[in-house]
Amino acid sequence: MKELTVSEIQEVSGGTLAESAEAFGYGLGLGAVTFGTKLGTIGVGAAFLAAPFVSMAMLGIAFYAGYKLLGK
Is the pLDDT score of 21 beyond 70? Predict the structure, then answer.
């Protein structure tokens, strides 16, 4: 049995973190804008109303990022 190199492992297991970082960044940015940061970028009422839609969007982005991470 032969040991695999790092590049061979990446080929077998899918992409790298750098390839999916963009999608993860979109999800984090969407959550920060909607649910607020220390600066309070959006009102609590608007965040409460948008929460279900943004949560679904963040979930979709997370699945997309995972897909990019695991497959080529």
Answer: yes
Residue 35, pLDDT score? 63
- Domain spans of the chain, in order of start: 6-70
pLDDT at 29: 78
Predicted TM-score (pTM) of this structure: 0.41
Do residues 62 and 27 make contact, with C-beta atoms less than 8 angstroms apart? yes
Q: SS in 3 state form for the chain? A: CCCCCHHHHHHHHCCCHHHHHHHHHHHHHHHHHHHCCCCCCCCHHHHHHHHHHHHHHHHHHHHHHHHHHHCC
Nearest CA to 61 among 22, 32, 17?
22
